[in-house]
Design a protein that fits this description.
The structure is a single chain. By secondary structure, the protein is α/β, with parallel strands linked by helices. The chain has two domains: about 30 residues; about 180 residues, Glycoside hydrolase/deacetylase (TIM Barrel). The protein is built from eight helices and seven strands. Helices cover about 40% and strands about 10% of the residues. Keywords: Signal. This is Polysaccharide deacetylase family protein.
C-alpha cells in the first residue's frame, strides 16, 4: 500500500512539474493586435511618414518631456527620403528620445498577401526599419505574410482600434476616435501625416484617456522602467516596459 501511494505521489509530482514547465515554456500567448504590450496601458502608434522634420521633432520633444512612449512605423521609402533631404535617420532620432520604432515595409506595398514567403521577407529588409516587430501595410495578413515576417525575424503587430484619421478627420475628431476605441492594453492606429500626429492632439488624447481611467505607455527607461529616459533599442523588448 505504501509503495502504491509513493508511486501515485511521484506521478502527481511529475504531472505538476510538466504543467509548470509547459506554462514557463509558452508563457503568455502573443497577440498580434496588442503586440508586445502585456500591460493595461494604451499605446499610441503612428504609421507611414511625417510631413516635415520639424513636425517630427516637435512630437519627439513633447513625448520625451511628458514621458510618453509612442510607437512609430515609418516606411523604408520615408526613411530614405529624410536621409537624402536632411541627412537624418528618423528611426535613430526617435529612439534617441526613448520612442519605439517598428518596421512598416519598404514602400507600403498595397497587399503583401499575394507574395511568397521569401518575397514578403524582402519587403521587410533595409532601407526599412531593421527590428523584431513590424506592421504589414493596411494590416493585411495571411499565412504567407506571417511566414515572411518569421523569416525576417519579426513578429507582426497590428492594432486593436483605428481612428480613421486618413479620411481627413479634424484633430478634434481624431482625438475623439482614439479615445472611443481605447481600452486597457489597446494599440491605437494613427498616421504621422495626419491630424493626430502633433503635441496638442497627443496631449488631448492622453487627458481624455485619463478621464476613462486609462494611461498611455511611457518612454523607454530601460527594461526595469526606472530612472531617466534613455535611447530605446533597435530591437524592442519581448514585453514593452510601458
Amino acid at each position: 500500500m505504501r509503495r502504491i501511494l509513493t508511486v501515485l505521489a511521484t506521478i502527481t509530482l511529475v504531472a505538476v512539474g510538466l504543467a509548470t514547465s509547459t506554462q514557463v515554456a509558452f508563457g503568455a500567448s502573443y497577440n498580434e493586435s496588442r503586440g508586445p504590450n502585456y500591460t493595461s496601458r494604451v499605446i499610441l502608434t503612428f504609421d507611414d511618414c511625417p510631413r516635415t522634420l520639424t513636425s517630427f521633432k516637435k512630437v519627439l520633444q513633447y513625448a520625451k518631456k511628458k514621458n510618453d512612449g509612442l510607437v512609430l512605423a515609418p516606411t523604408g521609402d520615408c526613411l530614405q527620403k529624410f536621409r537624402n533631404k536632411h541627412g537624418v535617420d528618423l528611426a535613430k532620432l526617435a529612439r534617441s528620445y526613448g520612442q519605439y520604432v517598428i518596421n512598416h515595409s519598404i514602400n507600403h506595398r498595397k497587399d503583401m498577401r499575394s507574395l511568397s514567403c521569401n518575397a514578403v521577407a524582402r519587403e521587410l529588409r533595409s532601407p526599412g526599419v531593421v527590428t523584431n516587430f513590424g506592421r504589414p501595410p493596411y494590416g493585411r495578413i495571411n499565412s504567407s505574410v506571417r511566414c515572411g515576417y518569421a523569416k525576417a525575424g519579426m513578429k507582426p503587430w497590428l492594432w486593436t482600434g483605428a481612428t480613421g484619421d486618413t479620411t481627413g478627420k479634424s484633430k478634434a475628431k481624431v482625438v475623439s476616435a482614439a479615445v472611443k476605441v481605447a481600452k486597457p492594453g489597446a494599440t491605437i492606429l494613427m498616421h504621422m501625416q495626419w491630424n493626430g500626429f502633433g503635441p496638442d492632439a497627443i496631449r488631448k488624447i492622453k487627458l481624455k484617456l485619463e478621464d476613462k481611467g486609462l494611461k498611455v505607455c511611457r518612454a523607454y527607461r530601460g527594461k526595469d522602467n526606472k530612472g531617466a529616459i534613455v535611447t530605446s533599442p533597435a530591437k524592442l523588448p519581448a514585453k514593452l516596459p510601458c
